[in-house]
């Protein structure tokens, strides 16, 4: 429950995101790019959970007014949001793999830069 | 009772998917027609809602001027796409080993083709109607995921599947960036409501404390959303994807996706961030709009210049549209960079002009590429002798896209220029003029082929009925908007009053 823990979590999230972004931009293998993207999405999920757990800043909901358990409300909101992120990430990776497999059938290479057409 | 346009589109998507599975094999295009009927019904429902301001689902869903004007654009774009896509169904497969820029979609997949197009349109409409960050995100993803499947729809064509892989990988990366920005915004404000988040950000002491993280969140969200409109940092996917996708899907990406991406940027930027003021470290009053303006201007300027320069060098017409589309994304961001009171009207008018002219040009492009089996500039050679009226129509559309006077595109650019000057962005105004002049060069390269170069054959081109319909609708719209721009602008400003958007927000502050 300390500020130091929040800062640590945020730094870890930022690091995870940076790692994912580097992987997404630098990797040639399509499956590795998808893995890297997963890291980026998880970094977002971690951020939300950490921030809403330690910082119930905007817990006063505009529609519902001040909530009796404002801190818990914010934390629950953050955790639900993370579930959304995870579900969407799964859908995105699923269609990503489907596209990779479809392309692999026609030209058997997993590397994005070797898929280029010759014009 | 309100007939929600989203509900009609969703019903249409499910109906065409079901029809594709259960329907008769003898009439494969019926699924397309079914989807078209639902889209037109949604269009009527949207028009009937003009002037309403409603909130539903605890404020997560919101109908206002911005929602309706963007949904109208999305639905017109979708209807024109469906008309073109109708001709894809059962069209002959490309002869040249599958690697042709255009070609048919097997008749047994017609239902999925129509259903995915409608689902993507539904994603765009949800973006336009969402006042909740999670709903915005889900709309964005629905549009993206249906888009990935549509780009790779021709499974036997290596170009199409490779385009899908590239689109997915760039899109997923952009989603990662977007989610990271979203996580800071939701986490720091503790709410998922766009407007409530805006209130929290504007509350006293908030920006002083978390200003940097909030600005970081804005940057990530803006850059992630820039991918959808193919603007500068995330523009590299456009040429390959536009080239590989079936031509109606290319048109959908160029027109509908771009409009939806702008709706996303408008709602997030103007709803949550732009109107925040705080006292800075130096004791001076600072405004978010002034801090974020240069960022938007930078993205806008880079998109205009990069798109135009790259378009000059390409010889493939579909890639040319992609590069030109990057430049158009830059134009469309100008009103947001040079914030002025009528910026939404400028964006909607320019989008309408861009949508109509692009749709018409894509209809001609679809027929020409299918006739010649290539989307190289050479495919247009001798078009004037093979189908004179289509060459004249192409001239009209390109004049409008390039912004020559007496077309709708000219007035669109004119309003952008006025807006840029109004907001004090002389440099952006100059860039609009310079890149417009460059656009004459690349658009006229196509026209030169069509009018002045002899083709390899003089055989007349027969346009299909739906293609003719798209060309006629687009030409009528471009001419109408060019002859009566004031009327069109006034209709947009009155029926779909953007002030509703700010009125409610200002009342809350």
TrEMBL record, chain A:
It is an enzyme of class 7 (translocase). Its EC number is 7.1.1.-. Keywords: Cell membrane, Membrane, NAD, Quinone, Translocase, Transmembrane, Transmembrane helix, Transport, Ubiquinone. Its main location: membrane. The chain crosses the membrane at residues 36-55, 83-106. It catalyses: a quinone + NADH + 5 H(+)(in) = a quinol + NAD(+) + 4 H(+)(out). InterPro entries: NADH_UbQ_OxRdtase_chain4L/K, NUOK/Mnh_C1-like. One of its GO terms (cellular component) is NADH dehydrogenase complex. It is a multi-pass membrane protein. One of its GO terms (biological process) is ATP synthesis coupled electron transport. It is found in: Cell membrane; Membrane. GO terms for molecular function: NADH dehydrogenase (quinone) (non-electrogenic) activity; quinone binding. NCBIfam families: PRK05715.1-2 (NF004320). NDH-1 shuttles electrons from NADH, via FMN and iron-sulfur (Fe-S) centers, to quinones in the respiratory chain. The immediate electron acceptor for the enzyme in this species is believed to be a menaquinone. Couples the redox reaction to proton translocation (for every two electrons transferred, four hydrogen ions are translocated across the cytoplasmic membrane), and thus conserves the redox energy in a proton gradient. Belongs to the complex I subunit 4L family. NDH-1 is composed of 14 different subunits. Subunits NuoA, H, J, K, L, M, N constitute the membrane sector of the complex. This is NADH-quinone oxidoreductase subunit K.
From TrEMBL, chain B:
It is a multi-pass membrane protein. One of its GO terms (molecular function) is NADH dehydrogenase (quinone) (non-electrogenic) activity. Its EC number is 7.1.1.-. It comes from the Bacteria. It is an enzyme of class 7 (translocase). Residues 130-439 form the NADH:quinone oxidoreductase/Mrp antiporter transmembrane domain. GO terms for cellular component: plasma membrane. Keywords: Cell membrane, Membrane, NAD, Quinone, Translocase, Transmembrane, Transmembrane helix, Transport. It is found in: Cell membrane; Membrane. Pfam families: Proton_antipo_M. One of its GO terms (biological process) is ATP synthesis coupled electron transport. The chain crosses the membrane at residues 33-54, 66-85, 118-151, 163-186, 213-237, 249-275, 295-313, 320-341, 347-368, 389-416, 422-445, 466-484. InterPro entries: NADH-Q_OxRdtase_suN/2, ND/Mrp_TM. Belongs to the complex I subunit 2 family. PANTHER family: NADH DEHYDROGENASE. NDH-1 is composed of 14 different subunits. Subunits NuoA, H, J, K, L, M, N constitute the membrane sector of the complex. NDH-1 shuttles electrons from NADH, via FMN and iron-sulfur (Fe-S) centers, to quinones in the respiratory chain. The immediate electron acceptor for the enzyme in this species is believed to be a menaquinone. Couples the redox reaction to proton translocation (for every two electrons transferred, four hydrogen ions are translocated across the cytoplasmic membrane), and thus conserves the redox energy in a proton gradient. This is NADH-quinone oxidoreductase subunit N. It comes from Hydrogenibacillus schlegelii (Bacillus schlegelii).
């Amino acid at each position: 429950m300390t500020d130091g823990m929040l800062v640590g979590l945020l730094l870890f999230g930022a690091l995870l995101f940076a790692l994912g972004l580097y992987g997404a931009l630098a990797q040639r293998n399509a499956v590795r790019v998808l893995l890297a993207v997963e890291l980026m999405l998880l970094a977002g999920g971690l951020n939300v959970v950490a921030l809403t757990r330690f910082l119930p800043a905007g817990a006063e909901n505009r529609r519902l007014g001040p909530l009796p358990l404002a801190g818990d409300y914010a934390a629950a909101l953050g955790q639900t949001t993370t579930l959304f992120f995870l579900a969407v990430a799964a859908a995105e990776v699923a269609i990503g793999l489907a596209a990779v497999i479809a392309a692999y059938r026609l030209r058997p290479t997993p590397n994005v830069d070797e898929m280029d057409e010759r014009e | 009772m309100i007939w929600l346009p989203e509900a009609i589109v969703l019903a249409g998507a499910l109906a065409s998917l079901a029809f594709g599975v259960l329907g008769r094999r003898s009439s494969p295009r019926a699924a397309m027609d079914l989807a078209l009927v639902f889209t037109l019904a949604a269009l009527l429902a949207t028009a009937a809602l003009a002037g309403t301001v409603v909130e539903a689902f605890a404020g997560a869903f919101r109908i206002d001027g911005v929602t309706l004007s963007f949904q109208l654009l999305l639905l017109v774009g979708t209807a024109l796409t469906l008309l073109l896509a109708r001709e894809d169904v059962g069209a002959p497969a490309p002869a040249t080993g599958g690697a042709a820029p255009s070609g048919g979609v097997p008749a047994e997949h017609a239902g999925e083709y129509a259903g995915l197009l409608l689902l993507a349109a539904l994603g765009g409409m949800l973006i336009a109607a969402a006042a909740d960050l999670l709903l915005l995100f889900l709309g964005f993803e629905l549009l993206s995921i249906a888009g990935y499947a549509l780009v790779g729809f021709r499974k036997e064509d290596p170009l199409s599947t490779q385009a899908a892989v590239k689109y997915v990988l760039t899109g997923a990366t952009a989603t990662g960036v977007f989610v990271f920005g979203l996580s800071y915004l939701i986490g720091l404000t503790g709410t998922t409501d766009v407007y409530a988040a805006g209130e929290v950000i504007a509350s006293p002491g908030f920006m002083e404390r978390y200003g940097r993280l909030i600005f970081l969140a804005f940057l990530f969200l803006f850059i992630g959303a820039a991918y959808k409109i193919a603007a500068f940092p995330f523009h590299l996917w456009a040429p390959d994807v536009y080239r590989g996708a079936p031509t109606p899907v290319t048109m959908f990406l160029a027109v509908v996706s771009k409009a939806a991406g702008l709706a996303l940027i408008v709602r997030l930027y103007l709803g949550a961030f732009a109107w925040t003021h705080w006292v800075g470290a130096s004791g001076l009053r600072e405004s978010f709009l002034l801090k974020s303006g240069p960022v938007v201007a930078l993205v806008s300027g880079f998109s205009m210049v990069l798109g135009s320069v790259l378009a000059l060098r390409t010889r493939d017409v579909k890639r040319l549209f992609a590069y030109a589309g990057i430049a158009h994304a830059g134009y469309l961001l100008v009103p947001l960079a040079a914030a002025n009171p009528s910026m939404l009207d400028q964006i909607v008018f320019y989008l309408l002009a861009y949508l109509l002219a692009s749709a018409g040009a894509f209809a001609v492009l679809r027929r020409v590429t299918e006739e010649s089996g290539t989307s190289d500039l050479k495919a247009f050679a001798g078009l004037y002798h093979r189908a004179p009226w289509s060459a004249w129509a192409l001239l009209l559309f390109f004049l409008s896209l390039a912004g020559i006077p007496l077309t709708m595109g000219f007035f669109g650019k004119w309003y952008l220029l006025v807006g840029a000057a109004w907001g004090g962005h002389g440099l952006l105004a100059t860039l609009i003029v310079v890149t417009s002049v460059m656009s004459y060069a690349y658009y006229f390269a196509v026209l030169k082929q069509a009018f002045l170069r002899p083709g390899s054959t003089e055989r007349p081109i027969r346009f299909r009925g739906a293609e003719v319909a798209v060309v006629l609708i687009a030409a009528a719209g471009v001419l109408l908007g060019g002859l009566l721009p004031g009327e069109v602008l006034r209709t947009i400003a009155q029926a779909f009053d953007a002030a509703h958007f700010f009125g409610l927000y200002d009342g809350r502050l």
